[in-house]
Specification:
CATH architecture of the largest domain in chain A: Orthogonal Bundle
Radius of gyration of chain B: 20 Å
CATH class of chain B: Mainly Alpha
Strand content of chain A: under 5%
Distance between the termini of chain A: 13 Å
CATH topology of chain B: ABC transporter involved in vitamin B12 uptake, BtuC
Order of helices and strands of chain A: EHHHHHHHHHHHHHEH
Number of strands of chain A: 2
Number of helices of chain B: 12
Distance between the termini of chain B: 72 Å
Helix content of chain B: over 70%
Largest sheet of chain B: none
Number of helices of chain A: 14
Number of strands of chain B: 0
Oligomer: heterodimer
Order of helices and strands of chain B: HHHHHHHHHHHH
Number of domains of chain A: 2
Largest interface: A-B, 46 and 44 residues
Strand content of chain B: under 5%
Helix content of chain A: 55-70%
Largest sheet of chain A: 2 strands, antiparallel
Strand order of the largest sheet of chain A: 1-2
Shape of chain B: globular
CATH topology of the largest domain in chain A: ABC transporter involved in vitamin B12 uptake, BtuC
């Protein structure tokens, strides 16, 4: 007799199944969060309306969403490069801080009267991208070196390195880079180094274009280039890669460098596009939410920008919700992380297939029944 | 005793006392984590679990004023939270790094939402009941070692005792053997009749109980209030201590003391006024942990062979 739910030997990997389980997980997370809204005495419908209307229904809010999207997307792309190469890097909070510090240092050097002096923006931008990328790339590359050459555990080392990077930032803004004044922060970066605003009437800046370009480049690297193929093979099966003549250690260090560099670009974009000065606390968890975005995008560079827009938008909506309905914005942390945990859990559902034929009479025997005859 | 010598003694006493005091919570979390890792589960979620434990014990202490029930509540919340994690690690077989990391974000959201729900935006109440340092007669009056070794809170002595218990259980009992077998060679353990799933659930739940209690320790014996940044990587440091201590509770105790000494050096040097940037000293425990687990000093060989590898029984 055919069963309604039949267990498969391998999970279904059709796009529909993947999309359906992801959507189901997200809806379940929203349902759970709806009860949280109720516990704060708010109507879930109004809360969700507030959560999504502000970022996606108003021009000003959409501009802020784009501002939040760019660093999240860049960190998610860094996560994809490193994790698909089998390097479980978790140090993006640190890369973000290092990239932001290096960029701010460069930008302050171009202030009138400083060491370099004003330079045109079309020269400054490539230089800033280079400095931000390389500084954070080397920072992460160091962890790659420890893993590849000494056999250290990159998961824990990269987690620890975040704290070291944050202390470096605190040192810089309270010592060498501190502006005269009571707060530990630098001067405002010269206006000429700011990323241009791209949507009139909003704070949206060109960082989102950098993020989109980076997504295209990462897609090309992983899908179209031999180097990307070697990285992915290294991630899938290091022993096989070694047997095929790939220098696994060098590939891991390279993946770490790229990943860190992308994390550094996230810091650069935030610094030149939105903060315009260096201070403690600019990271604020973006390094971890970026990893969550990459996971929800299933480590697929094409899906990163929409996913980052969703999460960036939700953080904007959450702030609006906290202002207007006094629901703590941390509830979106719950929604965002719960969604990923449920996506992982719901993956088990892809092992099952639904036999719609049991609803009709004279159902044909299923494959397993056929085989057991 | 002349002046400089007296100052030196005072420095050493404050430094060592603070070292042991700061080592306590991380050691407790590391002892639990040793069980999880010996069973084959790298439980990164202890960072979030410590936070939940800290919040729980703060709230219970705030509302009831009783300290032991607060600690017990933190322990129970740790177990409950790690039920979810164990399910993700063992039953769903999700990537342990991913599940643990995302759980930490979830725990941060939950802790901050619950804290605001419970206390609103009112001023932070600072007066919760806390564990006080013990005054052991005679021993406590000894020079230097008196205040250092015999002037800690009861939780410190409890943690040291638990280290010996953990060592005994892991290396001298059938349960410990089965647990370690599940982390070393799950297939062989399975064919010897050990339920690998059950052992890994046990390992994860023990680490949850210890991490919850460590959160309570942090609040009830050290800080006395709750804020979202209270844990700030101590769970991750506990993970480092497990590696530094080579998955052995007694060596982990020594490792935790080394960590505590680095952490306390920063406090003591600040009190005595030096020109070293405070951030360098603050970063010291993290740098020491990174060096300790970098592989520069070996250690790959003693790691549980099946650590981070989900087990599929067929």
């Amino acid at each position: 007799m055919a069963k309604l739910f039949e267990r498969r030997l391998t999970p279904s990997d059709s796009p529909i199944a993947i999309f359906a389980t992801t959507a189901a997980a997200f809806l379940t997370a929203m349902l759970v969060t709806a009860f949280l809204f109720l516990s704060y005495g708010a109507s879930p419908f109004q809360a969700y309306f507030a959560l999504f209307h502000e970022p996606f229904g108003t021009l000003r809010g959409f501009g802020y969403s784009l501002v939040r999207t760019s660093p999240l997307a860049l960190i998610a792309l860094g996560t994809i490069v490193s994790w698909r190469s089998g390097f479980s890097y978790l140090g993006f909070e640190g890369c973000f801080v290092i990239g932001a510090s290096a960029t701010a240092w460069l930008a302050l050097l171009t202030a009138p009267g400083a060491r370099i002096g004003p330079i045109p923006f079309f020269l400054f931008l490539p230089l800033a991208i280079f400095v931000g990328f390389v500084a954070a790339g080397l920072w992460a590359g160091l962890v790659g070196f420890v893993r590849a050459r000494l056999g250290g555990n990159e998961v824990l080392i990269s987690l620890m390195s975040n704290y070291v990077a944050i202390f470096i930032l605190q040192y810089l803004v309270s010592g060498p880079m501190r502006a005269p004044g009571s707060l530990p922060e630098t001067r405002i970066l010269p206006r000429a180094t700011w990323l241009p605003f791209i949507l009139p009437g909003t704070r949206a800046h060109a960082g989102i274009l950098i993020a989109i370009a980076a997504a295209a480049l990462v897609w090309m690297l992983l899908e179209k280039m031999p180097l990307g193929y070697e990285l992915i093979v290294t991630g899938f099966n290091a022993a096989a890669a070694r047997y095929a003549g790939i220098d696994v250690g060098r590939r891991i260090m390279l993946a770490a460098f790229f990943a860190g560099g992308l994390g550094g670009l996230a810091g650069m974009v935030e610094e030149l596009g939105s903060q315009h000065r260096l201070m403690d606390g600019i990271n604020g968890g973006v390094g971890f939410v970026g990893i969550v975005v990459a996971l929800l995008a299933r480590l697929n560079p094409v899906a990163v920008i929409p996913t980052a827009l969703l999460y960036g938008g939700m953080s904007v909506g959450a702030d609006a919700m906290q202002r207007r309905a006094s629901i703590p914005s941390s509830i979106t942390f719950i929604l965002q992380s719960l969604a990923v945990l449920l996506v992982l859990a719901f993956d088990a559902l892809r092992y099952y297939k639904i036999n719609f034929s049991v609803f009709s009479r004279g159902a044909p025997p299923t494959a397993t029944e056929e085989a057991s005859k | 005793m002349n002046g400089p010598q007296f100052a030196m003694t005072a420095f050493v006493v404050t430094w060592l006392t603070a070292s042991l005091r700061l080592a306590g919570p991380v050691l407790l979390a590391a002892l639990g984590e040793t069980f999880a890792e010996q069973s084959g589960v790298l439980n990164i979620g202890i960072e979030g679990t410590i936070l939940l434990g800290a919040l729980t014990s703060f709230l219970v202490s705030f509302y009831t004023g009783m300290i032991w029930p607060s600690l017990l509540a933190a322990l129970l919340v740790g177990i409950a939270a790690n039920m979810i994690l164990a399910w993700m690690y063992v039953t769903v077989r999700a990537s342990q790094v991913v599940a643990g990391l995302v759980f930490n974000v979830l725990a941060l959201g939950v802790a901050s939402a619950v804290y605001r729900k419970a206390l609103g935006n009112s001023a932070v109440p600072e007066s919760i009941a806390m564990f006080q340092p013990l005054h052991i007669p005679f021993l406590g009056n000894l020079p230097v070692i008196g205040p250092v070794l015999f002037g800690q809170t009861i939780l410190f002595y409890l943690t040291i005792a638990l280290a010996f218990v953990a060592h005994f259980v892991l290396f001298r009992t059938n349960f410990g053997l089965a647990l370690r077998a599940s982390g070393e060679n799950p297939a062989a353990a399975d064919s010897a009749g050990i339920s690998v799933y059950r052992m890994r659930y046990a390992g994860t739940l023990i680490s949850g109980a210890a991490a919850g209690m460590a959160g309570g320790y942090l609040v009830l014996a050290q800080v006395g209030l709750f804020r979202e940044s209270i844990v700030s990587g101590q769970g991750f440091i506990a993970l480092g201590i497990v590696i530094f201590g080579r998955w052995n509770p007694l060596k982990a105790t020594v490792a935790a003391m080394v960590f505590g000494a680095c952490d306390a050096l920063q406090l003591s040097l600040q009190i005595f006024g030096t020109h070293v940037p405070p951030q360098l000293l603050l970063a010291l425990p993290y740098i020491v942990t990174i060096l300790a687990i970098s592989g520069l000093f070996g250690g790959k060989a003693v790691q549980p062979a099946a650590l981070m590898a989900p087990y599929i029984k067929d």
